[in-house]
């Protein structure tokens, strides 16, 4: 039996960024599901709706499957939920690699979510057109005008971290990391010989709450680099995520093993304390 107790470490001086470590993947998934329920109910109570952007990957799939169970699904007013995707592959919506398809199979088709509240990336338009279309749809949903300035504020954004330090489809050296005013871009990823449609870092950083879900020992070296290493957001795009709101790194013990094994502050300074969030 795993006897490790969950623990939390504050990552920044303002107390808005936290590392939350769970004993194993099961506990991590339950924590994430409880967080989605909490932020959904909070947003609906305050604003009458909940805008959430999903991510792809095996860890989110486990989360979506848990959210679809009666235990969690009954706690959310799904008719007030709007579902988006922080990134999508340039494939049809029924393709095995589609983030939409994964979320639909694991969660969306199992809950009473109105079809008009599911905002998938229309990849059938082609990557460039799909990115522009998605940006327009986001602005319309948040009742904002193109070129008027400001950023839509999602209630909750779920992210993962790749073994190479990428997040969403923000990859090292890709054009989406360059400064700009776009919300969504078609981002050419040469290392994968493909194009991805992705939220830009400024849009992600405008969110009320951002949650990274990171699991497994294979992620441990990169998690240490991202949180405790030198700041280089071009090489490690996950470091570019410093939202104006709240940031939670939710991990299992295996992924966090090279950062911290308990609530004591680790040797070395977290990047957020060194440079200040949002810089």
Give a structural overview:
This protein has one domain (23-258): Rossmann fold, CATH 3.40.50. The protein has 279 residues and is of the alpha/beta class. The chain is globular and about 50 Å long. It is built from nine helices and ten strands. The protein has helices spanning 25-47, 58-67, 70-73, 99-106, 127-141, 201-205, 220-228, 253-256, 271-275; strands at 7-10, 17-22, 50-54, 81-85, 87-89, 156-159, 184-189, 194-199, 209-214, 246-252. Helix 1 (25-47) crosses helix 2 (58-67). The strands form two sheets. It has a seven-stranded mixed β-sheet with strand order 1-2-10-9-6-3-4. Strands 5-8-7 form a three-stranded antiparallel β-sheet.
Could you say which structural class the secondary elements and strand pairing correspond to?
alpha/beta
Tell me the series of helices and strands, N- to C-terminal: EEHEHHEEHHEEEHEHEHH
The helix count comes to 9
Major sheet strand order:
1-2-10-9-6-3-4
Computed Rg: 18 Å
Unreliable runs, pLDDT <50, ≥5 residues? none
Q: Mean pLDDT across all residues, rounded?
A: 94
State the CATH class. Alpha Beta
- CATH fold naming: Rossmann fold
User: What is the makeup of the main sheet?
Assistant: 7 strands, mixed
Please provide the count of β strands: 10
**What percentage of amino acids are in beta strands?**
15-25%
Shape: globular
**Assigned CATH architecture:** 3-Layer(aba) Sandwich
Number of domains: 1
Helix coverage percent of residues? 25-40%
The first-to-last residue Cα distance is 42 Å
């Amino acid at each position: 039996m795993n006897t490790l107790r969950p623990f939390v470490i504050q990552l920044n001086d303002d107390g808005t960024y936290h590392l939350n470590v769970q004993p194993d993947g099961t506990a991590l998934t339950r924590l994430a599901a409880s967080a989605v329920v909490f932020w959904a109910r909070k947003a609906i109570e305050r604003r009458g709706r909940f805008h959430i952007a999903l991510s792809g990957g095996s860890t989110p799939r486990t989360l979506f499957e848990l959210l679809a169970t009666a235990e969690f699904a009954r706690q959310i007013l799904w008719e007030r939920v709007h579902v988006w995707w922080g990134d999508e592959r340039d494939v049809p919506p029924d393709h095995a690699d589609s983030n939409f398809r994964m979320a639909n199979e694991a969660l969306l088709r199992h809950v009473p979510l109105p079809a008009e509240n599911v905002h998938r990336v229309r990849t059938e338009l082609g990557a460039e057109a799909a990115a522009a279309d998605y940006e327009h749809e986001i602005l319309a949903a948040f009742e904002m005008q193109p070129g008027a300035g400001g950023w839509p504020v999602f209630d909750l954004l779920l992210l993962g971290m790749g073994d190479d330090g990428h997040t969403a489809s923000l990859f090292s050296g890709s054009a989406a990391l360059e400064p700009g005013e776009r919300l969504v871009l078609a981002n050419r990823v040469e290392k994968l010989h493909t194009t991805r449609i992705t939220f830009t870092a400024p849009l992600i950083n405008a969110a009320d709450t951002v949650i990274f879900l990171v699991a497994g020992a294979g992620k441990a070296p990169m998690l240490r680099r991202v949180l405790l290493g030198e700041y280089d957001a071009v090489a490690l795009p996950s470091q570019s995520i410093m939202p104006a709101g709240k940031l939670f790194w939710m991990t299992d013990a295996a992924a966090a093993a090279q950062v911290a094994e308990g609530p004591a502050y680790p040797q070395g300074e977290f990047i957020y304390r060194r440079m200040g969030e949002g810089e």
